[in-house]
Amino acid sequence: MQDFDFAIVGAGIAGVSAAFHLAPNAKVVILEREHVAAYHTTGRSAALHSETYGSAEIRAITVASGRFYRNPPQGFADHPLLTPRGALIAGRAEQKAAMQKSAADYARLVPSVRWLEPAEALKLQPLLKAETAGGGAIFEPEADDMDVAAIHGGFLKGARAAGAVLRLNSEVTALDRRDGRWTIWLKDGEEVGAANIIDAAGAWADVLGGLAGCVPVGLVPKRRTAFTFDAPLGLDIANLPMVIDFDETWYIKPEVGQFLASPADETPSEPCDAQPEEMDVAIAVDRIETGTTLQIRRIKNKWAGLRSFVSDKNLVAGYDPVVEGFFWLAGQGGYGIQTGYAAGQLAASLALGKGLPKDVADLGVTEAALSPGRFAA
Ligand SMILES: Cc1cc2nc3c(=O)[nH]c(=O)nc-3n(C[C@H](O)[C@H](O)[C@H](O)COP(=O)(O)OP(=O)(O)OC[C@H]3O[C@@H](n4cnc5c(N)ncnc54)[C@H](O)[C@@H]3O)c2cc1C
User: Sign (positive/negative) of CA torsion 71, 76, 80, 82?
Assistant: First the structure.
């Protein structure tokens, strides 16, 4: 039986980033059920890096990750990981006061965030109907498009270069801990040994915790739908910002010659290979045609993925309070890529008993806010 210091379960962004940070200091194996890495949620995102999205801790971990993504080490990827996009959160007249409060809150962490009056918002994003931005908009000029494949691939390449092993087609089906070590059974009957398990199983994190005898952290996978459609003929959308309505009930994000769109749905689901529902696409089309001047004639591609949240919508990172050697890295929600670098970094640091990295702690993140123990009664 092969033996490791850390067995990371899941080769999505969470698992490969943790491996990237752990592998220089420990013997690491990544166990992934699918025949490719990033098959589930990581391969299905909208690829936006927004430092105004999520709880205060999520925003801080996003900022810490952005420092790496904007300036990765030589050889990490052969082109930039982030490219400028800009994001506009637009709201109706009656939402103005609430939006201005949010804008002030966001600007404390991200000083470039600006408040736009309705006319300025419409100038920046002329596809909006006047009433959609009737209260104005919050503008985040430094929100960026992410190259998710390059980020995920860079972590994996770096982890392997430092000695980590990736095993695909390796579903973990049973766990047993004896004499300070885990025996991990795989579906094909093979066994792997490890001192510690890192649970980076995405929507399945509570299922994996159950195999180890842990009390669940209460993870709820929520389906989110996305699709693409062509931009109006002759309209250059390359430099338009993404638009999200203030209630987060739809968004559109310009891509090359097309839009990526979503009804921003959050339908609770069992962990599964999520598929899009026609009704959710239809709801998004209606909301986008109501909020903008766009007419959506044909859906090009559609997909869905599971964004998995715990009750406070924060990340869960830390050793289980009861089950020895079981480390949770779960609850990435709608932020797993934008937080990916620093989430992996802080997970590795905590797993090695070194506490939170200073740059993350300096941004106001505490171990207690991330601890799986926070759900204990
Ligand atoms: C439509 C949509 C838009 C999004 N937009 C953004 C965005 O703009 N920005 C952003 O940052 N995030 C976004 N997200 C969220 C982001 O994609 C997720 O937070 C992130 O991908 C979660 O990564 P993960 O590694 O935790 O999970 P996953 O990528 O799902 O990886 C978990 C892996 O664990 C494996 N696994 C599970 N159980 C086992 C087992 N027993 N044995 C072996 N392997 C196992 C699974 O096969 C899977 O590959 C979006 C998500 C969706 C669906």
Answer: negative
